[in-house]
């Protein structure tokens, strides 16, 4: 009988904080920007330049710490992590090893019906490194220091996860918390949330952990899932062949769906950590912690309960809408204008989600305003436009945030409720379609649909379908 194996996974998640300026200088943290334009002597590591801590970084880190049930370290400090790499301009990184800002927390995840706590070992603040761009044509590497000094928090979990599904649920929970707090936009594709996966396998029932490897370069949930499955398989094959798993850092190649060794794993002593001499310790008072607690916004679970009570929408709707802060904000703002929660939720869940999927976009990319969504709902509700025109107009609202009232007026899209005009058209359609008329009189309901369709087509979709239906039934009696 073949052996059964269990995967043991812990994560190191880097989250870029949403401050306007870097952690130790006043340079912009904006994504994009021409290479090396968001830089100064501090973030390019010039001799004699001195770091000054950005207070907002500490406040965001505390907010995330509190939201993930961590204890805040009230006297914490920075350390120097020494290593040489071209994207690291000082040849050291300012991080926190001995007294990180937060520790001993947890988040609760749900996979299927199962709830589970994933413990957080610690969370620390640090500066990001620059970015190397490898030029294949010129056979050289160029470095862009725009990202150097962008503030990060690194959230280190305990090895509590056992599958790719649990890992994704944990990452989604962290992402949601950071987005709700406004601490980070957590866009994996822009690198503002990155995860390194520490993974080992052991026989089911074993108490000792196996030898772990760390996988880097994972910038999408799909890549993380594939990397976990691939690395699990690789380690099981090595064990089955009687070989040893080597503790090392591996790089995942998403195109080849394979990981390869980068370097054997260092320990903390390899980095010669020592207290950062240019920064004073941070003393966090009880009052400061209380102030951050008081400022914490309503998080998802509280929103869920409130939506079901105040807006009387089904649990399923509420879960989908509160899944991202952008969607929740849009829902609440639109409801405040038109006070039609179920209609708002339908437009967000059906048409908005459809267009996001078709365009390969995330809810964070939504551009249209709650005012214009509310106007569209009012137009459709009043029967000023019918449902198919409403969908057509919404596509314009979604793409360009047009004013639906003006758009309907300018393009002559109002529903035709003129009974006289519709009756004349119905007479023509009845005369031209004796077969459908006969079928309907013989009890075939579907035949009426064909006649309604002809009238709608002649009216370019602008007739009131309910009125057309009634008219036809009355005339065919």
TrEMBL record:
Keywords: ATP-binding, Ligase, Nucleotide-binding, Protein biosynthesis, Transferase
Residue stretches making up the Asn/Gln amidotransferase domain: 329-476
EC number, as in UniProt: 6.3.5.-
Swiss-Prot/TrEMBL GO biological process terms: glutaminyl-tRNAGln biosynthesis via transamidation; translation
InterPro entries registered for this protein in UniProt: Asn/Gln-tRNA_amidoTrfase_suB/E, Asn/Gln-tRNA_Trfase_suB/E_cat, Asn/Gln_amidotransferase, Asn/Gln_tRNA_amidoTrase-B-like, GatB, GatB_C_1, GatB_Yqey_C_2, Gln-tRNA_amidoTrfase_suB_CS
Catalysed reactions, semicolon-separated: L-glutamyl-tRNA(Gln) + L-glutamine + ATP + H2O = L-glutaminyl-tRNA(Gln) + L-glutamate + ADP + phosphate + H(+); L-aspartyl-tRNA(Asn) + L-glutamine + ATP + H2O = L-asparaginyl-tRNA(Asn) + L-glutamate + ADP + phosphate + 2 H(+)
SUPFAM superfamilies: GatB/YqeY motif (SSF89095), Glutamine synthetase/guanido kinase (SSF55931)
Family from the record: Belongs to the GatB/GatE family. GatB subfamily.
Subunit field text: Heterotrimer of A, B and C subunits.
Gene that this polypeptide is encoded by: gatB
Organism (species): Coprococcus comes
GO MF annotation list: asparaginyl-tRNA synthase (glutamine-hydrolyzing) activity; ATP binding; glutaminyl-tRNA synthase (glutamine-hydrolyzing) activity; transferase activity
Matching PROSITE patterns: GATB
Record's function text: Allows the formation of correctly charged Asn-tRNA(Asn) or Gln-tRNA(Gln) through the transamidation of misacylated Asp-tRNA(Asn) or Glu-tRNA(Gln) in organisms which lack either or both of asparaginyl-tRNA or glutaminyl-tRNA synthetases. The reaction takes place in the presence of glutamine and ATP through an activated phospho-Asp-tRNA(Asn) or phospho-Glu-tRNA(Gln).
The protein's name: Aspartyl/glutamyl-tRNA(Asn/Gln) amidotransferase subunit B
């Amino acid at each position: 009988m073949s052996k059964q194996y269990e995967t043991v996974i812990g994560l190191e998640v880097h989250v870029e904080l949403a401050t306007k300026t870097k952690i130790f200088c006043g340079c912009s943290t904006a994504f994009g920007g021409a290479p090396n334009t968001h830089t100064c002597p501090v973030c390019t590591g010039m001799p004699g330049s001195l770091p000054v801590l950005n207070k907002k970084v500490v406040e965001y880190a505390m907010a995330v710490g509190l939201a993930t049930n961590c204890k805040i370290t009230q006297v914490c400090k920075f350390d120097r992590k020494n290593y040489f790499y071209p994207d690291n301009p000082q040849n050291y990184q300012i991080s926190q090893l001995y007294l990180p800002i937060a520790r001993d927390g947890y988040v609760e995840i749900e996979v299927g019906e199962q709830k589970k706590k994933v413990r957080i070992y610690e969370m620390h603040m640090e500066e990001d490194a620059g970015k190397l761009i490898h030029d294949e044509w010129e056979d050289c590497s160029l470095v862009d220091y725009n990202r150097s000094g962008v503030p990060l928090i690194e959230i280190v979990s305990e090895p509590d996860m056992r599958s790719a599904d649990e890992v994704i649920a944990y990452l989604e929970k962290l992402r949601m918390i950071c987005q709700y707090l406004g601490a980070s936009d957590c866009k994996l594709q822009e690198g503002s949330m990155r995860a390194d996966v520490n993974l080992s396998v052991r026989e089911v029932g074993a108490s000792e952990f196996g030898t772990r490897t760390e996988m880097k370069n994972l910038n999408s949930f799909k890549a993380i899932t594939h990397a976990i499955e691939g690395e699990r398989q690789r380690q099981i094959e090595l064990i089955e062949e009687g070989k040893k798993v080597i503790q090392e850092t591996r790089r995942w190649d998403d195109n080849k769906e394979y990981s390869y060794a980068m370097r054997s794993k260092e320990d903390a002593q390899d980095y010669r950590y020592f207290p950062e001499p240019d920064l004073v310790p941070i003393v966090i008072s009880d009052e400061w912690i209380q102030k951050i607690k008081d400022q914490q916004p309503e998080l998802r679970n509280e929103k869920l309960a409130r939506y079901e009570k105040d807006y009387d929408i089904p649990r399923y709707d509420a879960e989908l809408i509160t899944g991202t802060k952008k969607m929740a904000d849009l829902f609440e703002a639109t409801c405040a204008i038109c006070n039609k929660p179920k209609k708002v939720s339908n437009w967000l869940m059906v048409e908005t989600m459809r267009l996001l999927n078709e365009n390969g976009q995330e809810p964070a990319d939504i551009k249209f305003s709650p005012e214009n969504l509310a106007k569209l709902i009012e137009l459709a509700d009043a029967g000023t436009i019918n449902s198919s025109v409403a969908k057509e107009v919404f596509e314009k609202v979604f793409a360009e945030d047009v004013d639906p009232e003006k758009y309907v007026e300018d393009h002559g899209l109002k529903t035709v409720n003129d009974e006289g005009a519709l009756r004349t058209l119905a007479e023509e359609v009845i005369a031209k379609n004796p077969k459908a008329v006969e079928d309907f009189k013989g009890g075939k309901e579907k035949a009426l649909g064909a006649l309604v369709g002809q009238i709608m087509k002649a009216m370019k979709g602008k007739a009131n379908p309910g009125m057309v239906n009634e008219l036809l039934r009355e005339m065919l009696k």
